[in-house]
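Course assignment 3, question 2. Fill in each field.
Student: A.L.
Task: Predict the tertiary structure for the chain below.
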Amino acid sequence: MSRRSKVNVALVVTLLVLALTMAMPAVAADGKLTIVHVNDVHGHIEPFTRSGAKEEVGALAKMAVYVEGLRKENANILLLSAGDMIHGTNVVNLFGGLPMVEIMNHMGFDAMALGNHEFNYGQEQLIKLAQAAKFPFLSANVVRDDGAVFIDDCAIFNIGGVKVGVFGLSPIETPILTHPKDVIGLKFVDPAEISAKMVDTLAGQADIIVCLSHLGYDADKDLAAAVPGIDIIVGGHSHTTLVEPAVVGDAIIVQTGDWAEHVGVLNVEVAGGKVASFDGGLVQMTADAPAPAADSPVGAALAAYKNALADKMAVEVGRTEVPLDGERAHVRTGTTNLANLICDAMLEATGADVVIANGGGIRASIKAGDITLGDIYTVLPFDNTLFAIELTGDRIVAALEHGLSAYPAQTGGFSHVAGMTVKFDPEKPAGSRVVEVLVAGQPIVADKLYILGTNDFLAAGGDGYVWFTESNPVFSSGAMLRDILAEYIEARGTVVAPAEIRIQIVK
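Answer field:
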């Protein structure tokens, strides 16, 4: 055999060995690790009180102390979030999500799935936050129009000698769960299809595979049944409180509820590169759970952002030459200029045909003169978000009938509108009072579909607006109504609040 032949043979053998090595699965490992997880925190860094409860619970700041304590006892910790972290409270929203990312950095998070609310600030800000994070944002099923993955799809971690492959999933309904402008140029691909590909990709590189899923518990169970090879699903989106891990097929499914009231802890023993045993559950961040020290990284960051928030509340966003009427007795029985202003802001933000809002959401007036951000937050103190739904004309009329049914009694469900005018006769029986509805100056058409802007409370049937729950959703922006109003006023400088009577009494 010639020297050249020997070289060629050696080269072939080398390439064959290399190919076989690459195709072979990772060396099966033995070890123990603890997955600490959370989901749907929605900006809740500080403790909060649940409706109807007496004591504060949560949130991420207390979780930080708990995780720090765990790490002193156990070095093999993987800290994960299943998404919807960076939007939802004033201290987070007003700084574009950065406070949450900074505190997650201090806590040493390893990865986070992209939830639908991660898109609320738009793609440009989301990318900036991903760059600021010291951990990857993951979503394998969000792709650009050209097929490229929008952000990281997966990551591999070595925890105590066990290689853990983690990939993320985002809800395919995200385009209607955020403002459409936030997802321009993006496609949300079938999670099961993508998961099967991710399992194939990670199988040769990792001992166990973890799916960070922001799909919801029911979808997670379907995914576990449809896609073999996923060992653990750390879930979110449905705000399901799983007191202990569930098992579907070979997959372990966990989820913590929301707002970091609970921290999930899943202890996993791996033998031969497979999950041999596990145990876990939830740990509640109770009122007496320790908060971070003022001089700790988390405590210092939170204090700095709270001080900055106070400064922002004092910032002037515009001016009004006349008082803006948000008095309780007025907004619960009739049209006011402030209610009109709020509805107009909603109409512009949604691009809807009409808007219906409830008087009970308006809690204060604004004096003539400069308008501060704090004034707006006092007027709209609730965490109501912007919705757009598709509804037929007859259902819109039925909703208006409901909103006017208690008149002249004060009710939080009293209807305020934009894009239309309404005439009603209060002497007629409730449910038959509406005499005329004009949309853009034309009579409303019973069987025509209209896009209606409203808030999340009414969209869910709040104040008895059950017709909205039977609608076709257009989008749920996640944007707070108070932020929408602030932006609307700021864009105009001196605001001229419409004083026309949009809900008119006739006899």
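Instructor remarks: The first strand starts at residue 31 and ends at 38. The radius of gyration is 27 Å.
Grade: pending
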